Amino acid sequence: MKISSRQNERIKFVKKLHRRRYRDQSRLYIAEGLRLVEDLSSTDMIQEVYYTDRLVSSPRGQELLEQLQESGVNVYLCSEEAFGDIADTDNTQGILAIVHQPELVVNWEHKLKQGLVLVVDQIQDPGNLGTIMRTALAAGVDGIWMIKGTVDPFNPKVVRSSMGAVQKLPLASMTARECAELSSRFGLKLIAADLENADPYYDTDLAQPCAIVIGNEGSGIQLELLKHCTERIFIPLANDVESLNASVAAAVLIYESVRQRQFI
Asked: Which fold is adopted by the domain 116-261?
């Protein structure tokens, strides 16, 4: 039976997951889009799926739906109107999944294989965090430490921008003090992306075990964390450009570390 009413209990349930409070309570999140749901279909983390006739109008969509049904996932056909009420995008592909959140990492003892961690200090833009996650996963970074005040990693926009990296990349949430303590415990040098008293990133040893810190888009790295950073690096810019997008800066620094280590 097709769900056509916006007042349907399933629709009300999904709409609640657009708010962090309910995502935290239920330990669920929304993953929207054909490719994203395809990637997640290989896991056992999908709880249920909502779709429209638009999805099954293509062989690719039909194949995905059959695969989900065969794996025992509950699927709900929705009218375009009802689906539009739960979708986060204007031009939807007619499918979204409700997914179980992975557990945040508490014990990093066996996670630090490369000795490379990215610290995001109160990043606010969902697109930035998602893109950073995707880059970190592609580069083989051990994980991301999110300082309290960073946007929710399970925000629908973060999830889409990460293209599924949020489900695969080890993540942790902590205070600035906990970050400093954890990096010290595991012998990771805290290296801040900062403009003051900093060296060019390509003149800095990023092959050593380290945690590279990317600050808030507007205010940069908070002083509580910056005071624990033993090195500061910057990306030289030309033509009076003041700064790079946080996700672009993170990508440059991550891949410089990869280049120096040559582990990909």
From this structure: Alpha/beta knot (3.40.1280)
